[in-house]
Amino acid sequence: MIPASTLFAHGVPMFIHFVVIRAFLSFPSIDDALGFYGVYHRDPSNQLIHFFGVPLIIWSLLVGFSHVDLPLISISINIPGVAKHNATYATLLSGIYVLFYTYLDTFGGLLYTPFAYALYISAVSIKLKYEGDIQSIKTKNANAKPSTSSSSSGSGRLMKMAVALHVLGWGVQIVPGHAYFEGATPAALKSFGGALSSAPLFAYYEGLWFLGLNKELQQRTQKLVDQYTVDVCRNGENMRVCAEYNLN
């Protein structure tokens, strides 16, 4: 019988991967992906919070998922910037983001790839370093029991840190970002998969637009956001912007 801890360790990342892939497949174009998310992120202060909060959420997921090797297959990853390691759910999730973002928008996806790479290698590196430090301490301690950690367990302290950062990432977006600045329901409550799939891309494009890149896409996105906003307001959505549009 498979232990409950193993089922949980694989079940959570499998679920996240499923909802992300399903959401990606529901977006026919980059405009639709950005337009959906933009409706709930119109306020500049909220956008700034998400610019930092979204990468924090993704990075903490990668830290957690880097503890769990992919089932049934064993692939050794040897890439610059990080020690040799087995392919994990973090590897798969990073690959999915890059693949779909490049498919939706080749220009943006290629520019996003180095950022996704940096998130991945930093998450894996801290996991490997922490496990190495713990093993060194155990080796020096003559009375310590042999290590029994597995790919599905990882370090308790590091996992707690990842969970804390994940909660912080969601918290700063929901409370000051949406409740105070935006005055709108978080996109995740409308479509968890849609938010988790489009949020990193939207946050990244905000940085590109700030630098003056791909302004044509920004203009198209803004028009679509305005259109979607009118639609959701007329359908009874309770957002502050609906009052500004006199659509409540």
Structure commentary:
This protein has 248 residues and is mainly alpha-helical. It has one domain. A hairpin with a 7-residue loop joins strand 1 and strand 2. Helix 2 crosses helix 9 and helix 3 crosses helix 5. 34% of the residues are buried.
Brief write-up:
This protein has 248 residues and is mostly helical.
Choose one word for the global shape: globular
Structural class: mainly alpha
H/E element string?
A: HHHEEHHHHHHH
| Number of beta strands | 2
Describe the secondary-structure layout.
Blueprint: H1 4-26, H2 30-38, H3 44-65, E1 76-77, E2 85-86, H4 89-104, H5 106-140, H6 156-182, H7 187-190, H8 192-210, H9 215-234, H10 240-244
Helix pairs in contact: 1-4, 1-8, 2-8, 2-9, 3-4, 3-5, 3-6, 3-8, 4-5
Features:
mainly alpha, two-stranded antiparallel sheet, 10 helices
